[in-house]
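Hey, quick one: can you model this chain's 3D structure?
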Amino acid sequence: MTQTQNNSSGWGQKWPAPAKLNLMLRIVGQRADGYHLLQTVFQFVDLCDWISFHPADDGRVYLQKTLVGVAEADDLTIRAANLLKAETGCSLGVCIDVEKNLPMGGGLGGGSSDAATTLVVLNKLWGLNLSTEKLMTLGLSLGADVPIFVYGHSAWAEGVGEKIEEINVAEQWVVIIKPDCHVNTGEIFSAKELTRDSKSIRIADFTAGQHQNDCIEVVCQRYPFVQNALVDLSEFSEARLTGTGACVFAQFDSKESAVRAYQSLESKWQVYLAKGINESPLFTKLRMDGYLS
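Sure thing. Here's the predicted structure for all 293 residues.
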C-alpha cells in the first residue's frame, strides 16, 4: 500500500507528548507467565515533550537528533513509526524531531508518551485510518504504558494495564520531585518482599481515598533518594510515588499552595509544578485542529 503525504497542515507542527501520574497502584495477583495483575489510575499532567514530524521523500524513518545514550534504532518514536509502516505497508518516510522535557527514568511515561504521539499523529498525517483500539494494541507491543497515552483520557486500568475504563478525577495542581536516581522497574516487580495479593477495590473506593501504591516500600528500601523526596514533599501535602518511580508527587487544592511547596523545594530537588488534566493535551490539540469530532 502506498499512501500520500496528506493532511499537510499537521506537518512541522509541535505535537504534545504529556506526562502521566499513577494516582494509585495495587498489585492484586500474578499470572502464570509472571506478569503482575494491577489496578491503577492514570491521570495526565500538563508537562510535555514536544514532537514535530517532517515528510521524508526517500521513505526513511529517522531522527532530527538522537537522545544522549539512546541508539536511534532503539528510540521509541522510531520504533513506533516503523511499526506503523510494517502494519500497513505504508511506503512513506518521516523525520522526527523530539524536544525532550520530561525526565527519563522517572515513572512519568515520557518514552511511552513519545511513542503514542508518534502512533496517533502519523496515523493521521499518513492517512492510515487505523482505529484507536488498533493503535492501542500496537502500542502495547512497545511498552505497557503506551496504550493509555493512545487512549488519551484519565482512566481506571486493570489486568496488566490493558483493561481501561474512562474516569474523571479532580484536576488539581501537582508538585513533582525527580530524585537523582533511576528506579529499575524489573527489579521492583521481581522483589520477593513485594506485595502481590492486595484486595481488589472499586473506583468508588479510590474516590473515597484508597490510593496506596504497593511498590512504595520496596522502592524506598532500595532507593534512599526516593524515601528522602517523599519525606520532604510530605511536609506540604500527602506525598505519593508514581508507578515504581523514581518521581514522587503531591496534589494541592490551590495553585498558591502548590507554588509555595515548589519554591520551598526547588533549591534542593529537581522539581516540577504542573496541573493534573483528564484529557491528554494531544487529543485537545487534535480536536482543536479538526482531526477529531
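One thing worth noting: The beta strands are 15-30, 36-56, 61-63, 93-99, 155-159, 163-166, 173-178, 239-241, 248-252, 270-277.
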